[in-house]
Amino acid sequence: MASFIAENFKFLALFFKSKDVMIFNGLVALGTVGSQELFSVVAFHCPCSPERNYLYGLAAIGVPALVLFLIGIMLNSHMWNMVAECRRRGIKNCSAPATFLLFGSVVGRAMVAPITWSVISLLRGEAYVCSRSEFLNPLSFPDVTHFYGPNVMARIPCKDASTEILAFREEARRRLMYESQFLGWMVIGIVALTIFLVKCLQHCCSPLSHHQEAYWAQYRSCENDLFNRTAEVHAKVLAASNVKQFFGFVALDKDEKEMVHDYPVDETQPSPQWNEITGVYLYRENKGFPLYSRLHKWAKKVIGNGMDPDGREMALLAV
């Protein structure tokens, strides 16, 4: 039983490792759905007033989407790699199309949460009904012969609607809900078609074979994982050394003592080395041999942009 459970855990680990972007985007979408449901139940209250309805409805959809987009940008490490590249090297080693595609990749990942928020808002329809109610023409409904102004129509989403609109209130809500959900499904279709076309473009324009592309993805994942774990150990050992010099001793548990003993650290790496391995990186080849990352390029002591006259530049798979 133990071996069976271990094998299943290994399978799940490999699945999540190979599908990390898809899983992450799915979790972001699910988290956004939950947040939107909570917001609708707790915080959304239509003001039922002309002009305020429209502004409140737009703000309920647009402001959280904007906040989620900015959070997605800030949490994407590739964005800060681009900033570091611009500050240090001005992206002089990247072509304009490659730079555009790299930025598009960052923006595309950051759009997962705001698009999910907007779609769920439209499918629920509350914000749309609130914002559009005052613009309805009451004469467009059957058996309505008297024109009601925005002051009256703005109260359609509210429970305490005036008696003069009770006759067509439900029909008005159904019409607005239809429009809102139609827009939501249209957004879903457009996003799905866009993702499909981008994936087709990515694979069609890739100069790498399918297996080499998969290997590159595995290498990037392993390098990032090992680098972060090693950096954590290096920082802890260096900090322990400095604390010991200051106090004369350092409070470590058993595992930390073994770690300090097994991985002696004298000093940190100089800034030029950090600068060499930091920044935007596209797939390069040097004399027919691939360079999979800035760290790989630095380890191979390759000078310049790492491309021979027949080299290839890969932009679509870089992030």
From TrEMBL:
GO terms for cellular component: plasma membrane. GO terms for biological process: ATP export. GO terms for molecular function: monoatomic cation channel activity. Pfam families: Ca_hom_mod. Signal peptide: none annotated. It is found in: Membrane. It is a multi-pass membrane protein. The chain crosses the membrane at residues 21-42, 54-75, 96-117, 182-201. Keywords: Ion channel, Ion transport, Membrane, Transmembrane, Transmembrane helix, Transport. Belongs to the CALHM family. PANTHER family: CALCIUM HOMEOSTASIS MODULATOR PROTEIN, CALCIUM HOMEOSTASIS MODULATOR PROTEIN 2. This is Calcium homeostasis modulator 2. It comes from Pelobates cultripes (Western spadefoot toad).
